[in-house]
């Protein structure tokens, strides 16, 4: 049975992201994500990590409560986040609660990771509570019937491969119709919703693409 699962990573995540967890079926933490969960009174039953970024108080909590702990060595080939994500079912709707600022190497790694996992068949979104990032890969599409406060949002389509072909959109002010987007181009950056529209559809035929929905600033 499909369920909605959230994985909380460590790092500087705004507390507003806790609102994303109000409608999930299961919460998992990766290392320092435990601190975010405890700070926002979020229940969780499972933790993955080498525990190099968790606070002593959070570590004591998981050691003294009924929490499934999966411990990894500090020297390993994957991040705690990837190790945790790869235990999840491709049938589930996964939201990765992670920083989208802070250490740029972690941010870029996580965005490339969700695109790779999408290509492998996972249904996954990344968010910090302020920005949602949805990856597309191969012959792929998304349809969001309604986006709240769409008149205050910017939408960017960011290619991660040399070329993303067959990009077609609906609901945006500047539409694409079977368009090819090139890696490194700013052509599809900072679009907006069409007046009176609050839904969004994006489809591609090949490549990897990030759909970024964020507040206009």
Any overview of this molecule?
The chain has four helices and 14 strands. It has 217 residues and is of the alpha/beta class. A hairpin with an 8-residue loop joins strand 10 (163-170) and strand 11. The longest helix is centred in the middle third of the chain and has 16 residues, at 104-119. It is globular.
| Mean pLDDT over all positions | 94
Annotation field: number of helices: 4
Helix content: 10-25%
Morphology:
globular
Count the beta strands: 14
* Share of residues in strands: 25-35%
- Structural class label: alpha/beta
Which residues form runs of ≥5 with pLDDT under 50? none
**Can you write the helix and strand succession as a string?**
EEHEHEHEHEEEEEEEEE
* CA-atom Rg in angstroms: 18 Å
Describe the protein's topology.
Blueprint: E1 4-8, E2 26-30, H1 33-39, E3 46-49, H2 56-64, E4 68-71, H3 80-85, E5 93-97, H4 104-119, E6 123-127, E7 131-137, E8 140-144, E9 153-159, E10 163-170, E11 179-182, E12 191-192, E13 200-204, E14 208-215
Parallel strand pairs: 1-2, 1-5, 2-3, 3-4, 5-6
Antiparallel strand pairs: 6-7, 7-14, 8-13, 9-12, 9-14, 10-11, 10-13
């Amino acid at each position: 049975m499909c369920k909605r699962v959230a994985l909380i990573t460590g790092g500087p995540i705004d507390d507003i992201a806790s609102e994303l967890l109000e409608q999930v079926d299961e919460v998992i933490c990766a290392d320092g994500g435990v601190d975010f969960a405890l700070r926002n009174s979020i229940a969780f039953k499972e933790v993955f990590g080498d525990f190099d970024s968790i606070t002593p108080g959070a570590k004591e909590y998981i050691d003294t409560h009924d929490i499934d702990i999966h411990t990894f060595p500090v020297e390993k080939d994957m991040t705690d986040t990837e190790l945790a994500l790869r235990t999840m079912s491709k049938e589930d709707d996964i939201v990765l609660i992670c920083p989208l600022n802070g250490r740029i190497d972690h941010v870029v790694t996580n965005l490339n990771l969700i695109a790779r996992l999408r290509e492998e068949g996972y249904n996954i979104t990344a968010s910090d509570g302020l920005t949602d990032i949805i990856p597309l890969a191969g012959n792929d599409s998304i349809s969001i019937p309604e986006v709240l406060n769409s008149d205050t949002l910017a939408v960017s389509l960011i290619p991660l491969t040399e070329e993303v072909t067959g990009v077609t959109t609906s609901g945006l002010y500047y539409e694409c119709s079977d368009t090819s987007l090139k890696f490194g181009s700013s052509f599809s950056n900072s679009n907006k919703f069409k007046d009176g529209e609050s839904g969004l559809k994006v489809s591609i035929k090949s490549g990897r693409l990030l759909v970024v929905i964020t507040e206009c600033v």
